[in-house]
Design brief:
single chain, DNA-binding
DNA sequence: AGGAAGATCTACT
DNA sequence: GTAGATCTTCCTA
């Protein structure tokens, strides 16, 4: 399994978001490996995007979005950690929010972390998946293009996927474009329609 | 010190 | 299915 290289993320966030579907998110905790297939993402831009954390200009906490691509960008909202990956064209600003994954490895551990029965609910939402994978602020700035990282994204089967798009969820002011992408028919996405 | 934030859970109609 | 309360940190005053 090959790790996605840095230039994968050095493109328009919407393209990266769409291409991340079907890729595998891997979380290493000591020797244990948790992994899942990415089934839902959202693209966020910089200062032109009212929903973006970078909208109001560069701040301390969103500095990562202005910097190198391929880094994990993590922040807390409503008591949940949200996982983004910095992605944008050279000199631009943006990130991709990972909203949901389909658990593959370490399901038992995820179940313990989440305290739910069904596999479908283990990581079917941005806050849920960080809890299931034990992702916290400590992983902020983690390079997901490094093989020895605690958090990385590797190549997966993306052929045969039926990709849909819709408007983003939960944002107060959305852009006219559809910037949410998800795998059609997957039971593991956070919401339908 | 206070409020706001890309959500989640629970308990109802 | 919808609605409401609650969640926990960071930012701004």
């Amino acid at each position: 399994m090959s790790v996605l290289s840095k230039d994968f993320y050095e493109r328009d966030p919407a393209l990266v978001a769409k291409d991340l579907l079907g890729k595998i998110l891997v979380r290493k905790i000591n020797s244990e490996i948790l992994s899942g297939k990415i089934v839902e993402t959202e693209a966020y831009y910089g200062e032109n995007d009212p929903a973006s954390k970078a909208y109001k200009g560069r701040k301390m906490f969103n500095e990562l979005m202005f910097m190198d691509v391929g880094k994990a960008f993590i922040y807390m909202v409503h008591g949940n950690w949200l996982l983004n990956i910095v992605a944008h064209l050279k000199g631009d600003v943006g990130a991709v929010l990972i909203r949901a994954i389909e658990p593959l490895k370490g399901i038992e551990t995820m179940r313990k972390n989440r305290n739910v029965k069904g596999v479908c609910d283990l990581a079917s939402g941005p806050g849920k998946l960080t809890k299931a994978l034990e992702i916290t602020k400590e992983l902020n700035g983690m390079d997901v293009t490094k093989k020895n990282s605690q958090l990385l994204v590797v190549e997966g089967k993306s052929e045969g996927l039926q990709i849909c798009s819709s408007h983003r969820i939960g944002v107060k002011a959305d852009l006219p474009q559809k910037l949410r992408f998800f795998v059609n028919g997957s039971k593991f996405v956070s919401k339908f329609s």
